[in-house]
Amino acid sequence: MDEKEEEAFLKMIGLKGTVPVLKFLNEKEAQYKDLIHLVTVDSLNTRLRQLLRFGLIEHHLERIEIRRE
């Protein structure tokens, strides 16, 4: 990580919502809807993108096919 990335990382850690989201995800896996109560939707979307970018969280998509007749 170069100096500019390190600075961006430290700034992101200090932003509102970052620590609560990380603490929540440290305790258990969660879906997006589980995180909405922590911060506003806009902040949550931004934080999740930033956390993904820095590799602090992973995105897992699970598709469940429901057959209906």
Can you walk through the features of this model?
With 69 residues, the protein is an all-alpha fold. The protein has one domain (3-53). Helices cover 57% and strands 0% of the residues. It is built from four helices and no strands. The chain has helices spanning 3-14, 18-27, 32-35, 41-53. It is elongated and about 55 Å long. 3% of the residues are buried.
Compact overview of the structure:
The protein is built from four helices and no strands. With 69 residues, the chain is mainly alpha-helical.
Shape: elongated
| Total count of domains | 1
Number of helical elements: 4
Please report which band the strand proportion falls in: under 5%, 5-15%, 15-25%, 25-35%, 35-45% or over 45%. under 5%
Mean pLDDT equals 91
- The termini sit apart by 53 Å
Rg computed from alpha carbons, rounded to a whole number of angstroms: 15 Å
Order of helices and strands: HHHH
Unreliable stretches (pLDDT < 50, length at least 5) are: none
State the secondary-structure class. mainly alpha
> How many strands?
0
Main sheet makeup: none
The percent range for helix content is: 55-70%
Describe the secondary structure blueprint for this structure:
Elements lengths: L2 H12 L3 H10 L4 H4 L5 H13 L16
Keywords, separated by commas or semicolons:
mainly alpha
